């Protein structure tokens, strides 16, 4: 039996069951990211389905939360998979997930560290790193023509390969790399991952199309933290609904405000 087979666990996703904040591990409650309304001292997040989708406005802490979870899972907070070196830690992209992860506790059943943490902003730097790397990639090398494809097509090819295997996969606003048509292809990929029962997905998105994935846990940032919601209750859906009802009137009203 090879090492990859040994890592496969005969249990369905989700593997990460719960995370919570340990107040004793917070160095300064007034410092970022611990000053975020989300991270009150009783913060806890339970994962009871294979796919969890998180929505909220920019600045609410979605990316920071995903970074913290990524670090807990053994990934670099700038994106990538277990065993990959940092791909982008420039000052402009300073991450806070490492700080947050030190104050988080996690419950796993079992601990899974295979998978990938996708950040749209670092997608190409991850890809170029993989092209250069002389590492023994447990997922196999990227497609030889990976970087020659468009952003969206390259993204889908990349994850078609990696998401076939057991693991925990974290997506931070994947729609930024995808046209609406590619988002539909991504939904099909999510369905294959879901049907396999071997993949846990945690995703933050602004896309109502991705939020509509059936049977996912949908959570929305509010002033009280993360709360369950429905697609129709999200501000993103309401805005798009108004737009499609009267596109020209909606835009004219918006730019006049």
From TrEMBL:
GO MF annotation list: ATP binding; ATP hydrolysis activity
InterPro entries xref list: AAA+_ATPase, ATPase_AAA_core, P-loop_NTPase, Rad50/SbcC_AAA, Siderophore_ABC-ATPase
Subcellular location(s) of the protein: Cell membrane
Gene3D superfamilies from the UniProt entry: P-loop containing nucleotide triphosphate hydrolases
GO CC terms, sorted: plasma membrane
Listed SMART domains: AAA
Keyword Acetylation part of the UniProt annotation: no
GO BP term, example: double-strand break repair
Membrane topology, as annotated: Peripheral membrane protein
Pfam families on file: AAA_21, AAA_23
Major subcellular location class: membrane
Residues covered by the AAA+ ATPase domain: 48-226
Keywords: Cell membrane, Ion transport, Iron, Iron transport, Membrane, Transport
Protein name: Predicted ATPase
């Amino acid at each position: 039996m090879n090492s990859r087979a040994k890592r496969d666990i005969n249990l369905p996703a989700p593997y990460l069951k719960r995370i919570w904040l340990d107040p004793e591990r917070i160095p300064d409650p007034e410092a970022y990211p611990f000053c975020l309304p989300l991270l009150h001292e009783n913060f806890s997040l339970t994962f009871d389905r294979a796919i969890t989708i998180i929505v909220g406005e920019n600045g609410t802490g979605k990316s920071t939360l995903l970074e913290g979870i990524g670090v807990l899972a053994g990934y670099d907070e700038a994106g990538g998979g277990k065993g990959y070196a940092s791909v982008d830690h420039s000052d402009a992209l300073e991450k806070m997930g490492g700080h947050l992860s030190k104050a988080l506790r996690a419950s796993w059943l079992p601990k899974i560290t295979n998978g990938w943490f996708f950040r749209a902003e670092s997608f190409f730097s991850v890809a170029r790193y993989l092209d250069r790397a002389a590492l023994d990639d447990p997922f196999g090398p990227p497609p030889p023509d990976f970087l020659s494809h468009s952003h969206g097509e390259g993204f889908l090819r990349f994850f078609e390969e990696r998401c076939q295997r057991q693991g925990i996969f974290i997506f931070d606003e994947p729609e930024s790399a995808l046209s609406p048509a590619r988002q539909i292809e991504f939904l099909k990929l999510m369905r294959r991952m879901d049907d396999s029962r071997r993949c846990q997905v945690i995703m933050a998105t602004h896309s109502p199309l991705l939020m509509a994935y059936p049977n996912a846990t949908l959570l929305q940032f509010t002033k009280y933290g993360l709360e369950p919601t429905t697609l129709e209750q999200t501000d993103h859906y309401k805005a798009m609904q108004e737009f499609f009802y009267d596109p020209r009137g909606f835009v004219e009203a918006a730019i006049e405000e």
